[in-house]
Amino acid sequence: DVTEIEEKEAQAKQEEQIMKEQELSNLLHEKRFLKALGLAISLDRPHTVLTVVKAILREPEGRRRLEENIVRLRKDQKEAVLAFLVTWNTNSRNCHEAQAVMETLLRHEAPDTLLQFSGIKSAVESLLPYT
């Protein structure tokens, strides 16, 4: 009977998820945005990433701080943010944040580098009608 083992694994995953959520909340409270972005991306939470982006933009010199944080992300994290911002851009409430992140990516990534992002073609096709 493996049900007990599976239940323990499921409970451990749930506890880990709760711990990460608490850590994310603490990072946002402490204004440690780079770590908060990384954690939200690793949890695959587009809305949470958007919340972090909005928190950064509310700071004094928010655009500059957003730029500093986005530039420091790894390539895979930037790819994830690009996928997220495609969805954000379709909603008028979130389009300004999506455009700010997209502007940062376009300014700091070489065209050849952007072309190597996974899903770049579909992202551009999805962004064009709303941008």
Automatic annotation (TrEMBL):
| Protein name, UniProt field | TBL3 protein
Q: Which GO terms describe its molecular function?
A: U3 snoRNA binding
Report if keyword Repeat is assigned. Answer: yes
Q: Does the keyword Repeat apply?
A: yes
Q: Where in the cell is it found?
A: Nucleus, Nucleolus
A GO CC term assigned to this protein in UniProt: small-subunit processome
Q: Which InterPro entries match?
A: Utp13_C
Q: Return any one Pfam family short name.
A: Utp13
Q: Which GO terms describe its biological process?
A: endonucleolytic cleavage in 5'-ETS of tricistronic rRNA transcript (SSU-rRNA, 5.8S rRNA, LSU-rRNA); endonucleolytic cleavage to generate mature 5'-end of SSU-rRNA from (SSU-rRNA, 5.8S rRNA, LSU-rRNA)
Annotated U3 small nucleolar RNA-associated protein 13 C-terminal domain residues: 21-131
